[in-house]
Amino acid sequence: MNRWLEEKFHRLTRHRQEHILRVVDLMEKLAKIHGLPSDDAYLAGWGHDLARELSRAELLAEAERYGIAIDEWFRKEPVLLHGPVAARWLNQAQVGSLAVWEAIEHHTIAGVGLSPLAKALFIADGVEPGRHFAARAALEQAAYASLDDAYRKVLDETMTYLTSRGLEPHPNMINALKDSGGNTWTKH
Ligand SMILES: [Fe+2]
Ligand SMILES: [Fe+2]
Known about the structure:
Elements: H1 3-10, H2 14-34, H3 38-47, H4 56-66, H5 72-76, H6 82-93, H7 98-106, H8 116-127, H9 136-145, H10 147-164, H11 171-179
Helix pairs in contact: 2-3, 2-8, 3-7, 3-8, 4-6, 6-7, 7-8, 8-9, 8-10, 9-10, 10-11
């Protein structure tokens, strides 16, 4: 593994490292099935949560340092910035490619017009076997059959979960679901 990546990875808690390993494993499977470049899939998995354990203040400071636009959702939930910040880190370290940085950038709130690699990362992050929710195994199976179908289903599941906890999904996520054909979602 790349030395920079390895150092960042080893600073994370065991809990986070194990999640990342499961995401990498799933990304490798999805890449094989759907014909994605295996290096990109691997690095997207390894890199996606490198900034996940920064504090709210640290995430906001990093976002400001890199000139990331901080909208009201990010301001309220700075944890959402861990994708964009990790993407800038990898870019600065010249680890990965544009495709990898884009996938990492969008893995927290999804978006419209994502590449198959970015969809795969969003799905793998949400349905890796360490997650515990009723539809998990079915969504993992859906991902082996179709990234587009699984992306729509994971978006739907994520938004249902957020609203059940009284949290409003980011507009990017709402637009992503509409764009993916799942335009039946409404605020509960
Ligand atoms: Fe994440
Ligand atoms: Fe993750």
